[in-house]
Amino acid sequence: VVYNLSSLALEKSSSWMTGCRAIIMQKEVENALLQESIEQFQNSGGLVICATDKERLVEQLALFSSKETEEWQDSLASIFSQGFLYSDPDTVNLLNCDRILARKKNNVLTQGKVDLILAGDGSCDTVEKANESKEFFHLEDFSDKANFNVEKYLARLETKTLGRNIISLPSVSSSMNVVSGLPLVDGLVIVPDRQTAGEGRGGNRWISPEGCAMCTLQLHLTLGRGIGRTPSLLQHVVGLAVIKALGDDLDIRLKWPNDIYYKKEAKLGGVVVNSSMFSSNLIINIGCGLNLSNQKPTLSVNQLRREAGLSEVSREQYLAATLNYLEDFLRRFDDGRAQEVIQEYHKVWLHTNQQVEI
């Protein structure tokens, strides 16, 4: 922004220094008082150029513009974290949902603990970070900069709704924070590479080093319909979907109520579920963490597969398969075939024939 100011205005007040980055003077300064203000401005990093020296004017402005661009990019990097978004155009998604579009302000979609700028909303230099305590993510279309291979994931995804909107984040406090606040869209999946404060059952923290496969899934259920009749079963059904996605090659089972175990020896992962009401819908946010490719001493699925002479499972393959099974199970609940799912659950339940003391 360029302002036209007189020398008299510069002499009367020093308020012009606030936010000012450069001054172009029409002639050399002769007023002592103004000269003192100009020197103070220069000492604080401001640029002063005399318009009579046109060659130096062009040179200095070019250097100044380059410096400003670098500083602005650095400041943006400290404000925004990068993320990646895929929204299936054939579904209700984050980019076309009227309810979501109505909530955006200055290109920002505010959640309870996270602010998002969605792909297609233009440059992130059009917004300001309103709350320093919040995490702020600028979501771009997936590219080779993302650690999550969305093409590999979509090639295996067979669902109609689940996972058709996916957000990948290099790092986030907790993927559950992205879905906190008002509902987003049914079937949305958040996939972080790392979490700094993952949530477990009972408020426990889930440490997520490199190799841990984590995700949060949001479901919009109708009370009294399908699994909406018994939503407390969801944590068990999600755990069952994880077990089925990993296949029958390893003895991986479910420990009550929502832990994923290798035999009875070691915990590999778990499920946490939060719920809330919005209008007539039950909004379910499901967090799931699995030690998929962690390095020793942590026991992980792919360590076990290598030791058994089996090929490794990628994060994309695992997540797509889990969502495929989960959507199938939810469809069975809708069709009145919940008992089929419960029978599948009992097959992988760790506690079958276990003796207990009362």
Number of strands: 14
The structure class reads: alpha/beta
Report how far apart the termini are. 76 Å
Please identify the oligomeric state.
single chain
- Provide mean pLDDT, rounded: 83
Query: From the alpha-carbon coordinates, what is the Rg to the nearest angstrom?
Result: 28 Å
Summarize the amount of helix as a percent range: 25-40%
Explain what this protein looks like in three dimensions.
By secondary structure, the protein is of the alpha/beta class. The chain contains ten helices and 14 strands. The strands form two sheets. Strands 3, 4, 5, 6, 7, 8, 9, 10, 11, 12, 13 and 14 form a twelve-stranded mixed β-sheet that branches. Strands 1-2 form a two-stranded parallel ribbon. α9 packs across α10. 30% of the residues are buried.
Concise structural overview:
The chain is an alpha/beta fold.
Layout: helices, strands, pairs:
Blueprint: H1 7-12, E1 22-25, H2 32-43, E2 47-50, H3 54-79, E3 81-87, H4 98-103, E4 109-110, E5 114-117, E6 135-141, H5 150-156, E7 165-172, H6 175-178, E8 189-199, E9 205-208, E10 212-222, H7 234-246, E11 252-255, E12 259-262, E13 266-278, E14 281-291, H8 301-307, H9 315-334, H10 338-347
Parallel strand pairs: 1-2, 3-6, 5-6, 7-8
Antiparallel strand pairs: 3-7, 4-5, 8-9, 8-10, 10-14, 11-12, 12-13, 13-14
Helix pairs in contact: 5-9, 7-9, 9-10
Q: Any descriptors?
A:
alpha/beta, single chain, 12-stranded mixed β-sheet, 14 strands, 358 residues
